[in-house]
Amino acid sequence: MPLVSMNEFLPKAKANKFAVGQFNMNNLEFAQATVEAAMEENSPFIYGVSEGALKYMGIEFTVAMAEAAAKKSGLPIALHLDHGSSFEVAMKCIRAGFSSVMFDGSHYGLEENIKLTKEVVKAARAMGVSVEGELGTIGGVEDDLSVDEADATLAKPEEAIRFYEETGVDCLAIAVGTAHGMYSGEPKIHYDIIQKVSDAIPVPVVLHGGSGVPDEAIRLSIAAGVGKINVNTENQVACTNAIREVLGAKADVIDPRKYLTPARAAMKAVIQEKIRLFGSSNQA
Ligand SMILES: O=C(O)C[C@@H](O)[C@H](O)C(=O)COP(=O)(O)O
Ligand SMILES: [Zn+2]
């Protein structure tokens, strides 16, 4: 199966109240762990690729890994630019074979964010590519850039509804109290904001900062209208801990396969658990 737009599965997620996981791809082992977990669960999923990860992996390798996963698995998989910063980078990804893009204009004022997002939607739609927009500021560390928790601002429901109506995005990330990275305490998620926005728009709300959110908070978020959840840090932690364990026990290991095999298995376990929690098993 070729890579698909998120519209292949997000409308079903919204209607049937489950969420599709976006698992960030940072290298081959992340790509393999994700597709292996999804195949066992028969689940659709999204490969999220940040601009930093794109630079690290190279755009041709990124697309090739995602296409290989789609071909091997037969699952509906979207290859999605995560937190795209400009029209140009979004178009570059689409030209290279991405089936979905995020334009993150959340650091602009509302009017400018709407204007710039609309331009991306117009161009992407003509090529059958789905678009995610963002409103409000999500705290924590995103692709190595840190936003202080104190500077994080929640999305205003009326603005989010207007943003959807004017841009026509396929899903909408709104700041509702989660943050990128692991939490020191428990996140305070504003389910009322999710519910208000979700009730007023026909597309799902996206929850960024999915790592470390307690299971019950994930269930309540999905019940309120979240249909896409992004997870990156938990996989990075699982990967790195597994590598540390191997190298800590055997300092003379030099074959990367000796530590990358357990690292990949650890990520696969995390992803499989998330897919089950999000309710997307057997929704492919
Ligand atoms: O930082 C990245 O490279 C990706 C994240 O911004 C992603 O969009 C996301 O929201 C994942 O959050 P996390 O699970 O808290 O890392
Ligand atoms: Zn994010």
TrEMBL record:
Q: EC annotation? A: 4.1.2.13
For the ligand (dihydroxyacetone phosphate), the binding residues are 181, 209-211, 230-233
Q: Give one GO term, molecular function aspect.
A: zinc ion binding
Coiled-coil stretches, from where to where?
none
The protein's required cofactor(s) are namely: Zn(2+)
Catalytic site: 82
What InterPro entries does its record include? Aldolase_TIM (IPR013785), Class_II_FBP_aldolase (IPR050246), FBA_II (IPR000771), Fruc_bis_ald_class-2 (IPR011289)
Q: Where does Zn(2+) 1 bind?
A: 83, 180, 208
Gene Ontology biological process terms, A to Z? fructose 1,6-bisphosphate metabolic process; glycolytic process
Transferase is among the record's keywords = no
Keyword Membrane found: no
Output the PROSITE patterns linked to this UniProt entry. ALDOLASE_CLASS_II_2
What positions does the entry give for Zn(2+) 2 binding? Answer: 104, 134
Q: SUPFAM superfamilies given for it?
A: Aldolase
* Catalytic EC class: lyase
Q: Which UniProt keywords apply?
A: Lyase, Metal-binding, Zinc
CDD domains given in the database record: TBP_aldolase_IIB
Cofactor binding annotation: Binds 2 Zn(2+) ions per subunit. One is catalytic and the other provides a structural contribution.
> Know the name of this protein?
Class II fructose-1,6-bisphosphate aldolase
